[in-house]
Each structure stands twice: as C-alpha cells, then as structure tokens.
Design a protein that fits this description.
Blueprint (H helix, E strand, L loop, with lengths): L1 H21 L4 E6 L9 E5 L5 E7 L5 H4 L4 E4 L3 H11 L15 E2 L8 E6 L10 E4 L10 E7 L1
Parallel strand pairs: 1-3, 2-8
Antiparallel strand pairs: 3-6, 4-5, 4-7, 7-8
The structure holds cobalt (II) ion (CO).
Length: about 150
C-alpha cells in the first residue's frame, strides 16, 4: 500500500504547482512625486498570491516631513476613516493607526529619493472586493489614491 501514498503526494505537488501558476499579479509598484500624485490610479493583484508585495518609490525631492508618502491598503469603505485617524496617529506612527483591523497593509512613510515596501498574504484580500490603496499622510488621500482590483 505504498504506491497510493506516493501517488497522493505526487498529485498534491501537482496541485500546489497549479495553484501557484494560477495566481496572477503579486506585485504592485507605485511611484509618488512632489506634486502629491501616484503614477497609478488602479492596480491589480491576486488573492491567490502567497505573498503580495507593494513597493513605493518617492521620485520627488521634498523631505518626508513636508511631502511624505506611504501606501495603505484597506477596503474603499474604510479609506476615509483610516485617513482621518491617521492624522491623530502622527508621523512617528507613519500616519497609520496602531493595531487597526481596517488596515490590511501599509508601508512606512518616505521622502524624496527613498523607497519602501510591504508584503502581506494574498488571502487577506477577497477576489472581487472593493479595495483602495492610498497615502495616509495628512491631506494626501484626496489625491493620492487608487483602486486595488483583486482577482482570484
Ligand atoms: Co503622500
């Protein structure tokens, strides 16, 4: 009865490879500038990704204290509330409320010439859900925001 066990293992491996192949885009690369803009208004990731990476490059020259940028991911419904509470969280917390379940992922705040990134499991997102990415630096999310489309 050794063969069936091996066969099951082989099938499991094939299944895992198939799942990895089925996962779509697992990286979002954003640029933020001194004009308070991201270069993308929409990005697509797959909930099937074991790990999703969100990268941000601040292509401007202004320091983080005056033109800081981060990337926060939450449902679109939570964006306004998180942005409001981010101001109270303050610069030391990278303008992200501490231990906030609404925040699915966030990077640190960076200034001109700097980069940052965050990784989180794809299964924190639901395919077809309504998500947004945005900068939670005070006043920025009005302009610095985009739709995060989530596929399977
Ligand atoms: Co910003």
């Amino acid at each position: 009865m050794k063969t069936p066990r091996r066969l099951l293992l082989a099938l499991a491996l094939v299944g895992a490879a198939g799942a990895a192949q089925a996962a779509g885009n697992c990286t979002v690369s954003l640029k933020g500038n001194d004009a308070m803009q991201f270069d993308l208004k929409e990005a697509t990731v797959s909930a099937g990704c074991a790990s999703i990476t969100v990268e941000l490059a601040h292509t401007g020259k202004l320091p983080a204290t005056v033109m800081g940028h981060n990337v926060v991911v939450s449902t679109t419904a939570d964006m306004a509330g998180v942005s409001r509470d981010a101001i109270r969280a303050g610069a030391a917390s990278h303008y992200v409320p501490a231990n906030d379940a609404r925040v699915i992922a966030h990077t640190s705040v960076v200034g001109g010439g700097q980069t940052t990134q965050v990784r989180f499991p794809g299964n924190r997102l639901r395919a077809g859900g309504d998500y947004s990415f945005y900068c939670s630096f005070p006043g920025h999310s009005a302009l610095m925001k985009g739709r995060l489309v989530v596929t399977r």
